[in-house]
Amino acid sequence: MTFEPTLLARVNKPNSPKLEGYRADGGYAAFEKALKDKQPGDVVTQVKDSGLRGRGGAGFPTGLKWTFLPKDHPGPIYLCINADESEPCTYNNRILMEKDPHQVLEGIMLSCYAIKSNRAYFYIRYEYGDAYRTLQAAIDECYAAGILGKNIFGKGFDLDIFLHRGAGAYICGEETGLIESLEGKRAWPRIKPPFPAVEGAFRKPTIVNNVETMACVTQIVRRGIDWFKSMGVPPDPKNPRDAGSYGPKLYTLAGHVEKPICVEVPMGITCRDLVEKHGGGVWKGRKAKSVNPGGLSMGFLDCTAPLKGEDGKTEYDIPLDFNGPGKVGCLGLGTAAVTVIDDQTSMVDVLHNVCQFFSHESCGQCTPCREGTGWMLKITDRLRRGQGRTEDLDVLVDVADRIGIIPGTTICGLSDGAGWPVKTAIRKFRKEFEDAIRTGTKSKHAKPLAMAAH
Amino acid sequence: MPTVYVNDTPVEIGTRKLNCVQAAELGGVLVPHYCYHPGLTVVASCRMCLVEMGELKDGKVTMQPKVFPGCQTPVKDGTVIITGEYDKRKPAPALPYDPAYKPGERAKKSQADTLEGLLLNHPLDCPVCDKAGECKLQDYSYQFGRTESRLVDEKNQPPNKPDLSSKITLFTDRCILCTRCVRFTREISGTGELQVVGRGHHEEIDVFPGFPLENKLSGNVVDLCPVGALGSKDFLYTQRVWYLKTTDNVCGNCATGCSVHTDTNKDIVYRLRARENPDAQGYWMCDEGRWGYHHTHSPDRITRPLTKGADGGLRPTPWQQVQIRKLFEDAVYVTARRAVVVLSPFLTVEEAYALGTAFKKLNKELRLALGPVPVVGEDDHYPKNVKGEHVPPTKFTIRAEKCPNRLGVEAVLTKLQGEVIRFADVVREDLNAMWFAGGFPDPEAVNAALPAGWKAPAHLFVQDLFHSKLTAAATVVLPATTAFEKDGTFVNHAGLAQSFPRAVKPGPEVRGELQMAFDLGGRKGLATVAAVRKDLAKDLPQFAALTELTQPTASKKVELATV
Prior knowledge:
The complex is a heterodimer. Helix content of chain A is 41%, strand content 13%. By secondary structure, chain A is of the alpha/beta class. A 5-stranded mixed sheet of chain A has the order 3-4-2-1-5, sandwiched between helices. A 5-stranded mixed sheet of chain A has the order 9-8-12-10-11, with helices on both faces. In chain A, strands 6-7 form a two-stranded antiparallel sheet.
């Protein structure tokens, strides 16, 4: 059976970002029908029953999140769209926004109708200039066509969508950081509880959803639950906390692959299949040493480490669903941005690069993350200069283990993401690190001047 | 009764809404914290107050698998709090924990980890740091930290910012980013000068260029700073804090009557700090009061008795040769109706009462007047918005009435003569004699109270701190004492009586107002407030509580009798 992409179906079609083109492909029919025939509660139930999990990284069930809103709230209730796609090597939202903005907007309209919100804030990262302009044009078209604004389709539903351009910080992708930034403050994540669903933007109940999640909502309402559930991986019966991973997913490929592309496949494709079949294999005929399964913060796979209980398979063969990477010590699926590292790349360099990113992006609010990410950078920088000590590895693992929301030492999850690649890299490639320390190998790459200041 | 368990010890919390830090404090357990301050919002970012938490329900304890910031986590009936000092707990029967659970282990490690993080980029320049000795980073490192640093790399060395304001300097590298100062300028003063710039471990506290930290409450950020990052230029490098003796005083600069700590060494005041007192002013004090102690050690002070010589000039005279009582009796001998005694609102209740009764005893017809009450502008309420307008609710007020005890002196005057006579009314009369008990820290306030073309009485006795137009015309000038140099009681704008002890000794030739009252009234011996308070309690029962004072600094609201 060949898989037909749905989320990316209209990408690169002529006129794909235009309202005219979208309506020709049956666009906004689902929204109009929902306004006419369905109650908001019906849409919530439909999304909840579809098993849709948030595409932003944490994989929290979307419908369940919507039900956390206080019942019979007098309003206003806000929907925030998280388009601050800053996880390294992730670009699936960008493609959706630039190539098919109306699919996302329809999802926003449906979601707002479901959660009884009359106002959506679309928080887009500053660097996405094209996406910003495309979306703004699409929103303007919708207002002109009466799909946004007052009394949409004559059904008495009002909706305004505001496009808000961020100012370029990774932390703005954390949902409460995004809300703070939207309110015009420094994007320091808020302490939870209260969760945004209770008290969010401008102290009102707020739902924060990812762009891809919105596109999925459009397709679920248009094609139904059965279509959505026909793809993906059902819940693991052995894991009561697994909610299953249904539906299509956009995977982005980056790093040392022949073809770095964004592909849409059903959830649960293995890492090997993704790289070999869709990415054209590892570049220059080399072998994969390590793969980062879903954005830097998820940690690393060791492509040669055998998978327990599965003959002949290695960590390279794990399924990329919400549950898969966790089985081999990674944090989760994350943004499904698969980064391949070939066998001629030094893990010391990779780790230094990772630490540089998180040290630069730590918002600096909580002590363990602020100081921990900086310390890890200093240590890895020393390692790549060939001045490492064996005990440094233990310090790195200790620091990486103790920072984050999982041990409870920080407010947000950024430092879990900062610690995870460090501890997985050192635990899985310890020998390589020890060899580098023993021989005093220096990195072959000069430190970029821009980063030297940090 | 709702009960929480702090390191196994049951603590009853009643109906109060508490967080873990407060609940643990009730149980006598210190949960260390930096960013948490009861007067500011909670941000839970320093992560020093991490505790383990669980719940005791139906005889079973369920502990959460992670650590929680104590400042942010509320407690309810049955909450179990385990701090890092579980092994030093008070003896109490252990709760039924899971046998695999090791109480306090995670909290202890988390606290040590946080301190290790805080010390990574801290310069450890304690020998030259003013905060050393009262530094929370030192204290907690000693109590909860590791003994050795594992950092071998270079520390970050951001440049210092000595020009944060004209009064405050920032040692950027010592800062631990608790953001108390930032929150203070946003929430209490409302002026919002301070902010965090940069990200990650390159974060710094800074002001916006061209907008220095100049507001009337700015000194509080120095009190708030748990480490030596924010320093008051007034105190910088003057004293090591372990030489300082702290006395709990009351600020005498305005009618708010802030509770303060007075830090002194060898009878010199070096620093004032706000003292938490919910009945008086809360947690803060204003800069005017904080740095307004310098008059105490001013070289311009009147330090010995002066009498008018034959040439009309004032000349120092030994106390033995100044027969105060006789001189004054002679002055009012002809007619007491043309004499007046002025009691300034800078006197303590005890001084005003002792002086008032002494003069009334000398001559019943003597009138007692309230000294000039300096008023500057209007009451200044905080927080403010960017335009400088007050935004309710009020969190701090600097009063326009720049004296500490008008209400107290008025209460005494009302009792002794049934009415309060204003200085402005008596000063215009054709007086023959006047006794002016001043104590004004600013002589300009005295000068301003004298009308144009004022004619000095023939016999003018002035007891004051500084020379003014009044002392220039005086026949006898006597040295006075400042609020730091005496025991006493002030009644603030809201009728709150706060008694305070002496912080420093006055100069060797200074006899206080109380002693003057004893001398004039013919009472023998050294003047003490305890003796005066006994009499005061009989005459003014609202001050009766002062006689029972066990602590020198108890404050009590008094019902001021109005006649």
